[in-house]
Amino acid sequence: MTLQSSVSPKGTIQSPQYLGSYSSKTTCRYEFQGKDQERVQVTFSEFNFPPRKGKDCGEEDIIEVYEPQKDNYKLIDVLCGGIMPKPIMSSGPTLLLEFQGTHLSNRNKGFKAEYAFLKNFGISTGYQLIDHPCSFSYNSTNVKSGWFHSPNYPGSYPKNIECYYYFYGTAMEKVAIRFTYFDVEGVFPCNLDSASDYLEFSNFETMDRKYPRFCGQMKGFTIKSDGKFFRILFKSNNLLDGTGFKGFYIFETDKVTTELTNEVGSRGCESKLNTVILLVFVAIQII
């Protein structure tokens, strides 16, 4: 079965005789063909396969996931067992799924999944910029707080991807970002020598030496900007991958500056009031 974005940009796929019993030695291929800037996302809603007996799938019913490599396809994942898979996203416009049913049983109902050819990498928050395929802006004049995440979250992020997240506050604002989930493949210091994927934080459009790169599995942590602008770069290579990250951002008014301004203003009013009282007292004395 071949599914093209120009004909069917989204839809449903399922195993043969879904909800019935498929025969043993059943093989079905689902080939997705999108356009250059598109990614294929597959989200399972049903996954009724025999339970896995060990760490590997062995001879169980499986779904193999392939991506094109030169003139052939490369196996990137194997799905089996009774656990619902997380969403899948291709690294390019093409993806191949191959279902292999080896067991005949009334309990094996197969699978059902929704697919979509996407240009937003599965990121529905912020405003997608047109100058880079994976870049999103978050402006406090539109929304003061909200969530953002890696492509295809909570599924594994695609390989060889570079995404930018830009945060724009007003003159008196800073942005605070609380990461509630963080699983980015790599080891410190998250550089090319360690072949790591990473997040890079900056108060500028370019690299900021104030912050180290972040990678690995980390518990919740918070990053704050120095001013009204903040940039996050997420970059993955073509090796291993993780399930990405999720963060909550909020634009906050600079409390120190605001309190200082209020204090100066109140003292100014107090000074003016004292001057008026003094002038009234002098006028009474003259009269």
Automatic annotation (TrEMBL):
InterPro entries the UniProt entry points to: CUB_dom, Non-NMDA_GluR_Accessory, Sperma_CUB_dom_sf
The UniProt record lists the keyword Repressor: no
Any one GO CC term of the record: plasma membrane
Domain CUB: 1-118, 134-252
Keywords associated with the record: Disulfide bond
Pfam families: CUB
The keyword Disulfide bond appears for this protein: yes
CDD domains (alphabetical): CUB
Database matches in PANTHER family: CUBILIN
Protein name (record): CUB domain-containing protein
High-level lineage: Eukaryota, Metazoa, Ecdysozoa, Arthropoda, Hexapoda
